Amino acid sequence: MRRSGIPSLFVSLLVLCGILLSACGGSAPSTSGGNSSSSAPKSVTLVTDIGGLNDQSFNHSAYIGYSKALDELKFRRQVIESKSQNDYVGNLTRAAQTSDLVIGVGFLMATAMDQVAKANPTKSFALIDACPSDAKGNCDPLKNVAPLFFKEQQAGCLAGVVAGQMEALGKSKVSKLLGNNTIGAVGGQPIPPVDHYIAGYQFCARKVDPNVTVKVSYSNSFDNTAACQDIANNQIGTYKADIIFQVAGGCGVGALQAAKAKGVYSIGVDSDQSHVNDSVITSAVKRVDQAVYVTIKNFEAGKFSSNPPAFDLTNDGVGYAPLSSQVPAEIKTTVDKYIQDIKSGALQVPDTVQK
């Protein structure tokens, strides 16, 4: 009898252990859908350029993409706003200490990004508009940095088509023209992404209207609104520029304000800036939001690349905002034709400003 009781007790213990394990969920497979919290990045940090989140342009667009990814993936939010170029190294370092992925917004961070990424080889970084660069400005390819480039010249071209054709149509179709067949561009600093926009604007405006004059000036600032306003006022007052294209981030809002005050037209940059005022007839759009969102999603999926493709018209990386009702209807047909020519390779848009 004793010998037969021992196996029974052993079986009972096994059953009890099984019940306890089941109650704790220790071996049961997960049946919940979507990404588990362990699969998402523990933190992604966005480090802005000096224009800040409220520049209504470049940094703001980056934040839109960041917020979209945050809503989907539920990672820990951290945004650091740079107040001056001296902040870059410190801000990027602070971000790297607490994040899996750090996204730097802007060309001017290239040298700081190179320094910080080298010091944190186990962390991943992305840099909008530039590659990490050494002290001499040479690209320094790093396996943990993804440079996010755009073909801004394509978006600038579309803005130039709008401006050039409005000039070509003349006052009979566009009554607010001042009559000097001149348009303007107000750049921030003469750095590659700014010049790419202006180069495309120049090229396509002249392609549509070979007689148009394009005035180009730089404020050497991305946040001094008054400086861009002064330049635009000079282009309008001295040269009778009919259309002002701003390529200066938050500073460029001043150029849009000058156009409104002087009763001429303006073109925004990076995102749709029609909300600024009704002088804005379209905007040359750079989908910084899309680049940030895609980069975070790829990182979460284990597809981080240090050599991502450029963002252009073919992948919806650049484009133009809807045209204002002030723009003659036939101009949209011309713009869309240019888009097709660029996508097909029939038209190559230069990225160098002509003096």
Automatic annotation (TrEMBL):
Keyword Transcription belongs to the record: no
Domain called ABC transporter substrate-binding protein PnrA-like: residue spans: 44-351
Cellular localization per UniProt: Cell membrane
Residues in the signal sequence: 1-23
Residue stretches in coiled coil: none
Main location: membrane
Top-level taxon of the source organism: Bacteria
Keywords, ordered alphabetically: Cell membrane, Lipoprotein, Membrane, Signal
Topological type in the membrane: Lipid-anchor
Signal among keywords: yes
Family: Belongs to the BMP lipoprotein family.
Name the UniProt record assigns to this protein: BMP family ABC transporter substrate-binding protein
The organism of origin for this protein: Dictyobacter formicarum
